[in-house]
Design a protein that fits this description.
Blueprint lengths: L1 H10 L10 H30 L6 H11 L2 H13 L19 H24 L5 E3 L4 H33 L3 H14 L9 H21 L2 H18 L14 E3 L20 H17 L11 H17 L1
Antiparallel strand pairs: 1-2
Length: 321
């Protein structure tokens, strides 16, 4: 029995809550996302008439509203962080700092996301797997989509890396549980996307690990949000390719679908995310981030102080007994 207790202490931190358990945590995350989507649907219906001022196409306005509806997830997750006292340390993950978690991080992230996705698209064009043609540029609509895509991508990062990741860090000693566990949640949340493939899910997992590494090594949730938004915006709004299987109703360039074919960097159903080359690229970027931070520990563990307090309290109680 004592051995089991010792093993438990090695795995579970004193601050760990029963709601932080790996499987239950995922269920809670899915529930909060669902509640956020319901709330966001109501909000998007209110703002939809405003979006109609920028496009006469009902399908484009509806698609833009769907991106914007992720604002509901932002509201739900932030409320859960604020209302429940035990969750309030998580608010530090969204607090802005002069050297990280700032607008510079977002801009850098957008550039990285653009570069990664654009490379895959460029290779697909060079290899003849896709052909693109210019469609239109509506600058106000373009900017609205950029903001809305960031809201969508940011909501996924706030949920996965800001909330669920931190719940796993609160409970488990080994940070790999949070990194791998959080990335697994991310895959599960995308299981039912249109045209999903094995390589699509593999790429989603690897890029989720990359986002978790940004949080682990740099404490920079905004950098993860920026890369995520840059990746999605580039393939969906800029080049009109499937984004996790979903094709945008508006894009600057359009895919000539009749000539598209599967290739090293492209999948006709899931886009560059479903390609072998996309997976390899994300693995390489993860490798670069790991190499640059080799030997370094976690940038910020928000639960260290709380764990020390709980450990001392238990030791004091034991001595008194």
């Amino acid at each position: 029995m004592d051995q089991i207790k010792e093993l438990y202490k090695k795995i579970v931190r004193p601050s760990g809550r029963w709601t932080d358990q790996l499987i239950l945590n995922g269920v809670i995350g899915f529930t909060l996302i669902t509640l956020g989507q319901i709330l966001g649907l109501g909000i998007s219906r209110v703002v939809k008439p405003f979006f109609s001022l920028f496009s006469s196409s009902e399908s484009v306005v509806t698609f833009l509203s769907e991106y914007f509806s992720f604002i509901g997830i932002w509201i739900v997750i932030l409320l859960v962080m604020v209302i429940f006292k035990k969750n309030r340390p998580m608010l530090k993950t969204v607090k802005m700092h002069k050297d990280h978690n700032n607008f510079k991080s977002i801009f850098l992230g957008l550039l990285i996301g653009f570069a990664m996705n654009a490379f895959c698209i460029l290779m697909s064009v060079i290899l003849g797997d896709i052909q693109l043609s210019f469609a239109e540029i509506n600058l106000p609509l373009f900017l609205l989509f950029l903001i809305s895509v960031f809201i969508q991508s940011g909501a996924e990062e706030l949920t996965s890396r800001g909330y669920l990741h931190q719940k796993l860090r609160r409970r488990y000693h080994n940070p790999l549980v949070a990194i791998i566990g959080g990335s697994s949640y991310f895959v599960i949340f995308h299981l039912f996307n249109p045209g999903v493939t094995f390589f699509g899910l593999a790429q989603i997992f690897v890029i989720a690990v990359l986002f978790a590494m940004f949080v682990y090594y740099y404490d920079d949730l905004y950098l993860a949000m920026g890369v995520h938004a840059g990746w999605n915006f580039t393939q969906s709004i800029l080049f009109g390719l499937p984004n996790s299987g979903i094709v945008s109703e508006y894009s600057v360039f359009r895919l000539e679908g009749a000539v598209a074919r599967n290739g090293l960097f492209y999948d006709v159903h899931f886009g560059v995310e479903g390609s072998v080359g996309g997976v390899i690229l994300c693995i390489l970027v993860c490798g670069v981030v790991y190499y640059l931070n080799r030997g370094k520990k976690e940038h910020t563990d928000y639960w260290v102080e709380l764990n020390e307090e709980l450990t001392k309290a238990k030791e004091t109680t034991t001595e008194e007994q």
